Each structure stands twice: as C-alpha cells, then as structure tokens.
Amino acid sequence: MTKLPNIGKPATNALQLLDINTLEQVVEYDEKTLLKLHGVGPKAIRILKEALSENGLTFTGNPTKSASSGVGFAVFCDFDCDNAPKKRIIRDYLVASASGDRAALESVLEESFVWTVPGEFEIKGRDKFIAELVANLQAVSILEVQSLLSHGKEGSAHGTVTNKKGKHVYFSDIFTFQSNKPDAKISKLTSFVVIEN
Length: 197
Description:
2 domains, NTF2-like_dom_sf, DNA-binding protein, DNA-binding, eight-stranded mixed sheet, Nuclear Transport Factor 2, Chain: A, alpha+beta, DNA binding, 7 helices
C-alpha cells in the first residue's frame, strides 16, 4: 500500500473521514467527487494525480461507489440500484433530503407521509415534513451511505452526513412503502439520529 502524498492537512483530513489513507484507496473514487469534499481543492487533486501516475495508477471513478450527483456535495453510496427500484428510491430520497430538493422529495414521498424520530417527534404530511426539512437544512459536504437495503414494502439505510464545518450526523432510517410495487412511494420513515457535538 502506498501512503498518500503531502496534499495538505485539510485535504488529508477530508480523505481520512472516508477511510481513504492510501493511493490504492484513492483510485476507487472519481476526482470530481473528491473535489466536492470540504478541504480538497484543485492543488490536492493535481498532487494526487501526479502521485497516482508515478505509481502506475489513475482515478478510475467507480460509479457504483461514488458520484458527484450534481447537488453541490459528495455522495458516496452504492449506485448500482438499477435492478432494485426501491433501493434507488431510498438513495434518491437521501440525496434529496440532504440537498433540500423539494421536487425530488415530492416524487418519492406520498402525500400522507409520516416521519417519526422515536422519543423526539412525529411529523404527519409530506408538505409539513418538507417545510421542516428545508427550515433546518445544513450545508452538507459529504453524504456517505454505508448500507442500503430493500425487500417488499420495506427498506433501510444508514450512513453519515458531514456538514461544511466537519461535524457529523449519523443516521439509520427505516422505510415503509405504499405497496410492493416497484414504483411505490415512501409512506413512513422512522429515523434514528446521532448528532456529533
């Protein structure tokens, strides 16, 4: 394994947040996504490219693991969801909720959607949920989804959202869909959230 070159402390810290500590791990990601990480700039990417080249490596950009997603922050997730429509819906929900994309949220949530955070609160109605989400939106740097599962009318996901200040929100979401149909919308969501102090 080849250690990361000297790309500066902010860039090194940003990569280490994703457990990227070697050049061999860097090649699993595309440079556009890495550029969206808070602390990683064009100079760090240039240095990484040079080090990769010197070691016979290149950015391969594995589209099933990471993508820029066009939302202004890096998304690390299993993007190989084409044969699992509900996994794709969950992934789209996670990206839309992190970015506050109202249209995308409306496309995956049914009108009578219910969001519960046990021991904290329950919000009934898609429009109320979206309004609450947008009112409390954070500037996101990274959305990392560690697991994404679906089966029948149910699904789950867990991961980490890192804001622009480097603080983490760890989440575990349990989804219930309207029906078993592949294009069913999300009807209920139970979220367990831990916010880093």
